[in-house]
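Backbone shape codes:
===
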Amino acid sequence: MSVSRTRREFLRDAAGLALGGALIQASPFVRAESVRKKRKVVVVTFGGGARDQETFAPEGQENIPHMLNEMAPQSSFFTHVTNQGILGHYVATASLATGVYETLNNFASVAPEHPTIFEYFRKELKRPLSDAWVVAPSNGFHRIGESEVKGFGPGQGARVILPKRLLGLTSSAGTADFEHLLHDNYETPLYTPALAGGEVELQQLETILKLSIGDFAAHARTLSSPDELSLYIAKRLMREESPSLLWITMHDIDVAHSGAYSLYIEGIRRTDRLCAELWKAIQTEPEYAGNTTMFVLPDFGRDSDFDAGGNGFQHHRTGDSASRTTWMMALGAGVRQGVVYDTPIQSIDLVPSIGAMMGFSPSQSSGKSIRELA
């Protein structure tokens, strides 16, 4: 709770946000079916794990100028989000996507053990495959889009785009120029997962999205960032497919595992900028402007400098408060602007909250709908 209060006071002083507890009974969400059919949701994980002292603590504010000055004043900001599950990136993201703390092997090529938000969304609302997409940061996330649960499972979830695989296809002979982008995992660099699916599907995706390496190179500020590539892919998806449910997992911050603090900070600053760029893109796309809710939240934090069992910013292994307590920002359609909430919530509450917003029921989720968003 002290972490929560620190974030609240900082946001109140720096960004002018107001305490929102008294406004709970006046929810702005409209439940009319016609509105729900038009509603779009974009989820961005501020992935890789980032601590308060490099972000929302006073000493970290210089690293998040876009989130602090542009996005927070437009948002409902939740200061106390806990992850009570396994602190591995794939398993934590799977937990976010199912609303259940998954227990799968973080480095195994397996599907989530429970139905995903994409399966609930498509099955109950009878949405086509083109209406739910995931842009994943590494090849280890290739099975995040759907479970193998009876009644859900293969063919019922989201299409998953692995930008690094697409890059290898579209750059063909010039792949060596982008070799630094194809590095798959910061925590276990030698890990290379086996992937299903062939080049035919990749070529179909290339055609659908009208991908161009030249166009990507022209718009990216740096060609060394996988997250820059993910943002480029997400914008193409919004333009060409206009999915109602789009999930993007950022991952550059996890370079902290290399032990280079400067690269960790660079990753935070880049992710801050890319989140703001995506929010601006949402405002300019006709299919998204005015009817989209965007969520930004970390998968978890990183270890404290004062825990003898950890390695500070470099890892997320101790399970201390710095690694388990994070935040969430909600912006856009139906969200109160400039409000901060201290109410403790869990990361698995995201799925039922989006379900209440879009009109589907995640029956196997363990989370609860966040009443400030219901």
Summary: The first strand starts at residue 18 and ends at 19.
